[in-house]
Amino acid sequence: MFRSKSTAETGPDVVLIGAGIMSATLGMLLKELEPELTIAIFERLDVAAAESSDAWNNAGTGHSAFCELNYTPQKQDGSVDIKKAVNIAEQFEVSRQFWSYLVENNIISNPHKFIQSIPHMSFVWGEENVDYLKKRYKALQQCHLFKSMEYSEDQEQLRSWMPLVMDGRDTTQKVAATHMELGTDVNFGALSRALFNHLEKLDGISLHFNHDVRDLKKAEDGSWLIKVKNRDTREKQLIKTKFVFIGAGGGSLPLLEKSDIPEGKGFGGFPVSGQWLRCNNPEIIAQHQAKVYGKASVGAPPMSVPHLDARMIDGQKALLFGPYAGFSTKFLKNGSIFDLPLSIKANNIHPMVSAGLDNIPLTKYLIAQVRQKPEDRMDALREYFPEAKMEDWELEIAGQRVQVIKKDPEHGGILEFGTEVVSAADGSIAALLGASPGASTAVSIMLNLLKRCFKEEVETEAWQIKLKKMIPSYGQSLLNNPALCDELRLWTTSVLELREMEMA
């Protein structure tokens, strides 16, 4: 596909729509694999990674399945299914390898601007939940990816791990927690901007902010014609390209629908908004050094798992609790209230209605969340931080998540809580739909996209050698090779120089 240089008449080889972590990762991979490649990136806002990839909009940072209980559901027989957690943990290791490669090759000069070491914890209370967490721990111990995980029901041990969570708690309450020292905090907004800053310096790369992609259509010669509008000058232009990636977060579905590819028929989207409680008291912020995840409420979407979350954002330590879910018809935080109704088409209305009827508890949950008062939010926070005071917290608006609705032979339509790559049969266009755990597994997602859309190139010796250089475990299973996993974890930790977050 990329054996000849582009000209001004034919346009760039690749167009990336959206300047978030997905486009940044794909652009970086492609440029490393094919240096002569020309790439144009179009972003509707005036800065990169201002939507789903931004730290304040991102519901979870450094998803590695160490603490997220929604990735380990309990089955009807009482056992715990760890398949998804194992898959996510392995994919996160792949991301760490790619980031380490970028650091070693001075593509990213200061990893501490986007990644920090911080323990990942799961915390539950009540006999039934404690029993679940113990089963989860025992199941995960069978996989070496989780071998360093610790489990405890001792309140004093838990107090040493997370003092804010335990101080003021009823000493007779049945509690339990797991602790994973290997956890990380990742600022995907900072990472995305670092990658785009590097890409902009390379020949053949053009980054266009305040540019809105309005339409796209396949030409007779197999290329794509993309209509772009400059939001500053109102000028419109037509771009011709060989390959299009739609990585526009919640804005991906409308553009996929406009592409009119058969593979995109029947997909719908269900938007879920979010809010945080953000701590404004430095003394309290300094006392918490962990990501503490609990169990989601009945009917809650998986990405609404409550967590008391310590983060590093723009060099400052922050403490958040949430997210509190809500409903908006916008597909983007900076989108339009007409996004949802305009996305309903003849080919997806049946799956969307069917999915809606099957998820009435979710609808009820979102309505209840929207109607919450500040006192209700504080009550939820005090389950994790018993001594929390309202004056120390303020409400922060989080980003939008558009969950995937797809056709299903049995139910007509199902609501998926994950990511979905939709690509044309000829590999000329691909779109990423969905949310969690997206950003943390972006490298694996984009590697799979390469296999779909660049089948011939991926099989060449040159690409295979380069892929294995960028991701040393490429083509191998970390799950089935504990020694390789340990070796690469040691390497990535050394390269990224992960350290305990300073409390000062």
Describe the structure.
The chain has 16 helices and 21 strands. By secondary structure, it is of the alpha+beta class. It has one domain: FAD/NAD(P)-binding domain (3-Layer(bba) Sandwich). A hairpin with a 5-residue loop joins strand 9 (211-218) and strand 10. Helix 1 packs across helix 13 (442-453) and helix 2 packs across helix 16. Its cofactor is FAD. GO terms for molecular function: (S)-2-hydroxyglutarate dehydrogenase activity; L-malate dehydrogenase (quinone) activity.
User: How many domain units?
Assistant: 1
Straight-line distance between termini: 52 Å
Overall geometry: globular
Q: Using the 3D structure, state the CATH architecture.
A: 3-Layer(bba) Sandwich
Strand content: 15-25%
How helix-rich are the residues, as a percent range?
25-40%
Q: Write down the Rg.
A: 23 Å
Organism: Chitinophaga niastensis
Pfam families: Mqo
Catalytic activity: (S)-malate + a quinone = a quinol + oxaloacetate
Pathway: Carbohydrate metabolism; tricarboxylic acid cycle; oxaloacetate from (S)-malate (quinone route): step 1/1
Question: Gist?
Answer:
The chain is of the alpha+beta class. The protein is built from 16 helices and 21 strands. It has one domain: FAD/NAD(P)-binding domain.
